[in-house]
Write a structure and sequence with these properties.
Elements (H helix, E strand, L loop, with lengths): L2 H20 L5 H14 L1 H14 L3 E9 L5 E9 L5 E9 L6 H14 L3 E7 L4 H10 L2 E4 L6 H15 L1
Helix pairs in contact: 1-2, 4-5
Length: about 170
């Protein structure tokens, strides 16, 4: 999908938001804003190119992956990288918001990470974590990437993963 088409969709969603608010649905702006951010991020396509990069290096990588936790529950992650032995090395998720991302997102991500036990976990956030969420992420040992422009999270994620995998 071209950038022009993305903007047309975002504009249509903005119009829909105004209409729904006029009809008495005040909270719809949050959902529409998140959807337009996800469209602007182009998550699926960008993560696929990132997966190809790690696959070419002999690793197992994928987008929208399900990883079996020690509890027997399958957890969904936006992106994951495993070694040839199948051991999960890195998992990543996104948390997009119109304002600061709160502690609830960090807690949810950590619960999945705790069960899966990867070598590293990265939360890609736009625009940024709240101070409380940031402190919680530090306490849990999560890597956090913050960027006001969601589209720039993908190259930042690649750089972070490269550093992590280079150190392992």
């Amino acid at each position: 999908m071209s950038p022009r088409v993305h903007w047309y969709i975002i504009a249509a969603l903005a119009s829909l938001t105004v209409g729904l608010q006029a009809l008495g649905f005040p909270h719809c702006i949050i959902y529409v804003s998140l959807l337009s951010s996800a469209i602007g991020l182009g998550t699926h396509v960008n993560f696929e190119s990132l997966a190809k990069k790690y696959i070419s290096e002999g690793r197992l990588a994928g987008t929208s992956t399900k990883v079996l936790g020690r509890s027997g529950v399958k957890h969904s992650f936006a992106f994951s990288v495993s070694g040839e032995d199948g051991e999960v090395q890195v998992v990543a998720d996104t948390a997009l918001s119109v304002s600061e991302v709160d502690e609830v997102k960090v807690l949810g991500f950590y619960a999945k990470v705790y069960d899966v036990k990867p070598k590293a976990a990265i939360l890609c956030v736009s625009p940024k974590l709240s101070p409380g969420a940031s402190e919680l992420a530090k306490q849990y040992g999560l890597h956090v990437i913050e960027q006001e422009r969601p589209r720039e999270l993908i190259p930042m994620l690649a750089t972070t993963i490269d550093k992590i995998l280079g150190a392992s």
